[in-house]
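User: Show me a protein chain along with its predicted structure.
Assistant: Here is one chain, sequence first, then structure tokens.
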Amino acid sequence: MSISIRSARFIALAGAGALALAACSPSSGTTVGRGAVTEAGIQTIRHVIVIFQENRSFDSYFGTYPGADGIPMSNGVPTVCVPDPVTKQCVKPFPDHADRNGGGPHVAQASAADVDGGRMDGFIREALAGKKGCTNPTNPICSNSPTPDVMGYHTRSDIPNYWAYAEHYVLQDHMFESVHSWSFPSHLFLISGWSATCGNPSNPKSCYSSDMPQLANQADPTPYAWTDITWLLHRYGVSWAWYLDHGAQPLAASGTGRRKARPTAQAANDTGRIGDAIESLGGVPQIWNVLPGFTDVSQDSQLGNIRDLSDFFAQAQAGTLPAVSWILPDAADSEHPPALVSRGQAYVTTIVNAVMRSPDWDSSAIFLTWDDWGGFYDHVVPPQVDTLGYGIRVPGLVISPWARSGYIDHQTLSFDAYLKFIEDDFLHGSRLDPKTDGRPDSRTVVREDASQLGNLALDFDFHQKPLPPLILPPCPQTTLTGVPPACPY
């Protein structure tokens, strides 16, 4: 079947589904606000798919997107700059068409240094510090270039598919990382609304907030004792799956005990070494594949819901996607420097195309984001919600037949908004709240109820004619330099 015929088929499906779904939409008098929403509207969405990529700031991908809160400019020339301690120059953001980027350090210390009390001027200084001990000549952060690439930004012609999704569906220009730290705690927040270290892995009350929590390892495979969202999904009988691109990397072996097994800030701060390490093995790195480390997943006998990404494609084709899906990339597909931008875009496009070609398209919402800023420049000061966040701004996209076409969402958002939407859609507004969720832990903040947090329901219009699929080539023509000769997808 050709793409044109397939697209026509699903346009028809979406149109036919509009009448059936209209009964589920709120009346014209219904107000959808920042708080609890009328379930009838968002329950049009029966499949939520979260695609979680790696290490890009909003300004590095959408800094020149028309109408968005992008890089401050006058007549096309940036009006902001960041000091370079080596050259003593103040470096303005610049177009960078390189397919392979370096980025910079992105743990909590680097986030604080980059933000620099709201001046947003530490990016080059931190990137230069990250070069120390970095010896891989294929990794751009290790290069001899006097100025790191953290001030570079990609243009529409570099990432045309991502911009096409923004133009046809929804772009969120105030999506902040949930935690002001690196990938590992960011993934913990994605699934649980918290990042913590636990004194006793069998006791949820023994956990305390941490931006550098305990890593799972072979000697201690389930150190995350607090409650994650799958506990509530299982309790309410809601289907879910955690999909891994080419499976999982093995847990690190450790016979040195819990405390000594945790990563050091110095190791995490060296972006070059992290990039080298995650590409040395196939599958999803353990710092991203956090869900198996939660004790409640084992207690619920739900480990079988952690699946290979090939199952997602089969289920999409069959129209049997679960209610909630999370999709994690392997290193090569992740866009985590030094991984290629073009390959990450191709990988994401194949996933989006699979949903758009699926019988489930007319009831789906795809949330696409990047887990942290990766050391790349962003000009917006992150708001503070608690001691752990928010972190530096990242891109966010909503792709759905019910998305408000061409809409730019300026609400303050974080990954906690995904939990909130899932809870409002499938769990009647239940929260990961130790007072009500049936599995008390020691968290003191329920992130989904933070006053700063916007409402993803505002990105949808359940009265509109459903938007058709936008099937895109995984490897479009771009202005990226250093692009591999063959398309990987």
